[in-house]
Amino acid sequence: xxxxxxxxxxxxxxxxxxxxxxxxxxxxxxxxxxxxxxxxxxxxxxxxxxxxxxxxxxxxxxxxxxxxxxxxxxxxxxxxxxxxxxxxxxxxxxxxxxxxxxxxxxxxxxxxxxxxxxxxxxxxxxxxxxxxxxxxxxxxxxxxxxxxxxxxxxxxxxxxxxxxxxxxxxxxxxxxxxxxxxxxxxxxxxxxxxxxxxxxxxxxxxxxxxxxxxxxxxxxxxxxxxxxxxxxxxxxxxxxxxxxxxxxxxxxxxxxxxxxxxxxxxxxxxxxxxxxxxxxxxxxxxxxxxxxxxxxxxxxxxxxxxxxxxxxxxxxxxxxxxxxxxxxxxxxxxxxxxxxxxxxxxxxxxxxxxxxxxxxxxxxxxxxxxxxxxxxxxxxxxxxxxxxxxxxxxxxxxxxxx
Length: 402
Ligand code: PLP
Known about the structure:
44% of the residues lie in helices and 14% in strands. It has 402 residues and is α/β, with parallel strands linked by helices. The chain binds pyridoxal-5'-phosphate. Residues 18, 69-71, 96, 145, 149, 176, 178-179, 199, 208 line the site of pyridoxal-5'-phosphate (PLP).
């Protein structure tokens, strides 16, 4: 048994599905003297951020930047478009789908909640059916999580848009991209989303504390008649001040310095390359899990998340005990489990500023921790992941040489 020690050597493996590790370049950009938030230098910075972030949401419309975590942007999306008693269609994809529904209730909305067993994404056909049944078109908004962080389920937003259109329903479409934005393809305008909710601390590689609402013209029109109370989150004040590069209150200046870098870094790598990297690392992780003989929480591969893989624990083994042992021994953090599945799984985050080597290190720690914890599994998960990564990298090079 090792002696008690107050120092842990080496870099921590932060494999939670956000906050994700913040690159040194972003930390350095934020490590700068405070400037006047009503001065010209700030206005230039804010303009660069307000314009730059649109390219990440893929919208020509404004994106509102809040000094709040993702939960704030959830609230902003609801209070700016809806009125007390409005019916909203929501889906129980997992913990976050449930929390958004609870928020809607607290705000005086009437959620219609499509339940699931937490092991799937959103089936567009289910949305279409619910909307067709709403003969009087009373549902005012459809609220969906692009990526359910608590389970690792990605839902097909473009197809859900088509389902809403197929039902001929006028409901607004509100989408949470907190754990998918800047990690997988997302197109606010092209996919006809009315409000996209985003967060800073995952694909954007920033610290927590900033969140976003991308808005459509329909959402802006709904804002004019929406009567839910709003003050801090009101879009109109923000949009007016943003036009000249300012905010209605003291904005998080250091976060904006970071956001500017984040947008630049994503474009330097190329958004499509960022998405391909996430897909590659996610597939490598799933291959490791399958080689270990363990089960991926989300059953149908078509819903598998590019940013998070939730791994079911075999019967009689507790996910939280496993996470504690892995942290103490190998200095790695995984995401926790929630709700009806508390203790029954752990989540490997593979998003943000992460590369092949980091992932392999994390998977090696995981394989060692599984052995140490006595969790029944087969060896060779790390090897399977490495083989996959090599095959992906070898593919294009071979083609280029031919
Ligand atoms: N929605 C999703 C999909 C999330 O993953 C999270 C947080 O992880 C939230 C909403 C809430 O965001 P926050 O914790 O930043 O308030």
